[in-house]
Amino acid sequence: MRLRAEEIEQMSLQPGFWDDQKAAQALNKEKARAEELVRAWDSPSRALDDAFALLELANEAGDEDSRKEAEGSLDAIEEAIRGLELRRMLSGPNDGADAIIEINSGAGGTESMDWAAMLLRMYTRYCERQGWEVELADYTEGEEAGLKSASILVRGEFAYGFLKAEAGVHRLVRISPFDSQARRQTSFASVFVYPDIEADIEIDVKESDVRIDVYRSSGAGGQKVNKTSSAVRITHIATGIVVAVQNERSQHKNRDLAWKILKARLYELEEKKRNAEKQAIEETKTDIGWGSQIRSYVLAPYRLVKDTRTGEESSQVDKVLDGELQPFLEAFLLGKRNTSKGGLPE
């Protein structure tokens, strides 16, 4: 990282560097990130040297208080190094990008629609905890409760890098609030996560490649729902990808946002064609039902959230549903590291 920052610094001194404003800004952004990572590594490295020096002096002088101080500082250093290890796992080409999350209800009828709404709230709360900005792009209500589908844009540092761990089928087991006999029900919903690609990545989509429909908004919002035809639906004819946006009252804004999401999805599609592992994961999403879940949330007869990929679990179900997802995301990222070495941690 230090060498890369120095390389970009030298490039910035070359004539014509600023001729391409987008490319120059992208490189400066990469340079700033590299410099930040170098600073992040230098800090615990210096702290570790200081701790060892203090420990050596304490042992020579028989100073028990200094020895305890040196040993106590190691906990903070270990936490800092763990954070650096996590950042190392966020080194993919799009990990630093903003994210687009799509949620779709699956098997389970009204139950699954209510579950999809719970997931939307969970991700919104998680993003707010991270200090990220969340924008609702599309929302289609369920017939009786919850939602059929929804999509949100998440703007924040490494939003995609973390949230990509959530792509897959999520399973809920609980006593149904919609069942008069209070029976236990199992519901499913799928989550798709795409990077909000940088503007300088060229995805060529012609007007002739798509069908654009406008219609009246019908999402959540009561009296605030726009009664004019401001909602926009874009269908990419070749792939069948459909993007609908109805959040803004302006048809122009909705159209721009729909194009942005479509390009992100097409970019992700191209990435999957070049990545067999991602393609295999995508194929498992086609069946939003039994046997395909990445995580189970059990509220009855016991309370437990368990990720089937990493084994990470928590009995604090309410906290998880309120957005405390970080342990699951970190386990996924660090688990991918261990997978490359031959297996997941026990």
UniProtKB/TrEMBL annotation:
The modification N5-methylglutamine is found at residue 223. GO terms for molecular function: translation release factor activity, codon specific. It comes from the Bacteria. Keywords: Coiled coil, Cytoplasm, Methylation, Protein biosynthesis. The keyword Coiled coil applies. Peptide chain release factor 2 directs the termination of translation in response to the peptide chain termination codons UGA and UAA. Belongs to the prokaryotic/mitochondrial release factor family. This is Peptide chain release factor 2. It comes from Vulgatibacter incomptus. The lineage of its organism: Bacteria, Pseudomonadati, Myxococcota, Myxococcia, Myxococcales.
